[in-house]
From TrEMBL:
This is Olfactomedin. It is found in: Secreted. Keywords: Coiled coil, Secreted, Signal. PROSITE patterns: OLF (PS51132). Pfam families: OLF. Residues 44-71 form a coiled coil. GO terms for cellular component: extracellular space. GO terms for biological process: signal transduction. Residues 184-461 form the Olfactomedin-like domain. The gene is olfm4l2. Residues 1-16 form the signal peptide.
Length: 461
């Protein structure tokens, strides 16, 4: 039943009368109390007109309604049809295999890659760059084809892309006169690790279970030539602001004659050390800085801090991607390492699905800037490794075996972008947790901060 409101103007007093109209038998019927007027002809005519136009609009409404009633099933059918046609994509979408956005991003990444390779190619035209260009070109065509045909396996494409990206990064690092595998690195992967050659309780005591320690790690450093250092995380096993340096091995073993540096004025300062991340390299301490995705460099001579932001989409910090075995080492998100090639930051990104990412760090002594020169993406989920370190541009990751054993089980080579899952090099320890593990290129030793115990090993090749 249709209801219609009629607005009738009364004659002189300006009062309006609201009357309900009803559709009856194809016409609009309104009951109007005309007693309140003294039949003024003008108003009657006006009212008549209103009633007629009421009928007119009612009819057109009726027409529209009939039209809608016919069209509604059609519209519903179209929606159903579209829904049905979208369902397969919805399925793929739920599986994380297909989205238009991913295609778009992929295409962008590929274009960037093509540009990068073009740039390298113009400087360094060799078989490897030619091969890379060809592969990237082919992948780009494949992705464009997929976009049209919508038959996709995004996982394979992403994997291929990661592989190519690493190839390009590695290409960048190969100098024109490249012949061997670097000045100091020609012996291949680590083949074995000795029993501990040095064991000591942290000078702060073994209640401080997290931190890092080692020997100054720069190959041709003038200062701090054979300094040993310890950096315990004194606040909640997460934050630290002090560095103890011992000029000699003897002083270190005797916990005597140390020099202390205050890196930050508190445990909540922007320059505070976060996580067991530090490495003493030359005359500076490099570490992950407080609640950030930055690596900091504290200069021992000037007491100043310079920093660089790590590249990547969604760089993990504040315990998002720590090192874990069945426990996680709190806030071990960003790990700074040194080797024969220089300085590295190991971390994980959302963009690389929480897998380990390796960035090479460069300190420019003239400009006094810290920068990231290159970045590689691995396929190893960071939270599935207990720790990691770098040797000759190769990342090694460890896993927990039991309370007294760790095992190096994974290697990723930045020179080739290739990885090896088949390693099984054992490491002995004295306590469960490995806060930090660092290689030192000056003596090829490996330093472990093992729940407040300090252990050193000899790496064998
Ligand atoms: C409907 O209107 C027609 C003519 O206008 C009339 O013949 C018929 O009797 C009416 N029916 C009802 C139910 O009022
Ligand atoms: C949907 O509509 C298209 C074109 O109008 C038609 O080819 C297809 O068969 C329809 N699909 C379904 C599920 O009705
Ligand atoms: C590796 O080193 C350990 C400790 O020195 C030793 O016991 C073991 O035999 C070595 N393994 C190999 C394969 O050389
Ligand atoms: C290094 O980083 C600084 C900022 O910290 C920036 O100004 C400079 O351009 C960077 N240098 C290179 C070579 O990227």
């Amino acid at each position: 039943m249709l209801l219609l409101l009629l607005l009738l103007l009364s004659s002189g007093d300006g009062k309006a009368q609201h009357v309900s109209g009803q559709k009856k038998n194809g016409s609009c019927v309104c009951e109007v109390n005309s007693n309140m007027w003294s039949f003024p002809a003008v108003n009657y005519n006006a009212m008549l007109q209103q009633v007629q136009s009421c009928e007119g609009s009612l009819n057109s409404l009726q027409e529209k309604l009939e039209l809608s009633n016919q069209r509604l099933p059609q519209i519903q059918a179209v929606i159903k049809n579209v829904t049905e046609r979208l369902e397969p994509h919805q399925y793929l979408n739920n599986q994380g295999l297909y989205t238009d956005l991913s295609f778009h991003l992929l295409s962008q990444e590929l274009s960037q890659l093509e540009t990068d390779i073009g740039a390298i190619h113009s400087q360094l035209n060799n078989g490897q760059t030619q091969k890379l260009s060809k592969e990237v070109g082919k992948l780009h065509t494949d992705v464009d084809k997929m976009h049209i045909s919508k038959t996709i396996n995004m996982k394979t494409v992403k994997e291929k892309l990661r592989y190519l990206k690493n190839g390009v990064e590695s290409c960048k690092s190969i100098p024109k006169d490249f012949r061997g595998q670097g000045r100091f690195c020609f012996k291949g992967l680590i083949s074995n690790i000795s029993d501990p050659v040095m064991t000591k309780v942290s000078p702060k005591g073994k209640t401080y279970i997290s931190g890092s320690w080692g020997k100054q790690a720069q190959m041709d450093s003038e200062g701090q030539k054979s300094s040993y250092w310890v950096q315990p995380l004194l606040n909640s096993h997460i934050w630290g602001n002090t560095l103890h340096i011992y000029q000699t091995y003897e002083d270190f073993m005797a916990s005597a004659n140390h020099k202390d540096f205050t890196i930050a004025p508190s445990f909540t300062h922007a320059n505070t050390i976060e996580g067991p991340s530090a490495v003493l390299y030359g005359e500076a301490l490099y570490y992950h800085c407080y609640r950030s995705i930055d690596v900091c460099r504290y200069d021992l001579n000037s007491n100043t801090v310079k920093r660089v932001t790590l590249p990547g989409t969604g760089v993990g910090f504040s315990n998002k991607f720590p090192y874990c075995y069945y426990d996680c080492r709190v806030n071990s998100d960003v790990d700074v390492e040194a080797d024969e090639m220089g300085l590295w930051a190991l971390y994980a990104t959302v963009g690389n699905h929480g897998n380990l990412v390796v960035s090479q760090l460069v300190w420019d002594n003239e400009a006094e800037t810290l920068n990231v020169s290159q970045t590689w993406e691995t396929r190893m989920f960071k939270k599935s490794v207990s720790n990691a370190f770098m040797v000759c541009g190769v990342l090694y990751a460890t896993r927990y075996v039991d309370e007294y054993h760790e095992e190096v089980f994974y290697a990723f080579d930045t020179a080739t972008g290739k990885e090896d899952n088949s390693l099984a090099v054992p490491l002995e320890k004295v306590a469960k947790g490995v806060a930090s593990l660092s290689y030192n290129p000056t003596n090829r030793q490996i330093y472990m901060y093992n729940d407040g115990y300090l252990l050193a090993y000899q790496a064998l090749f």
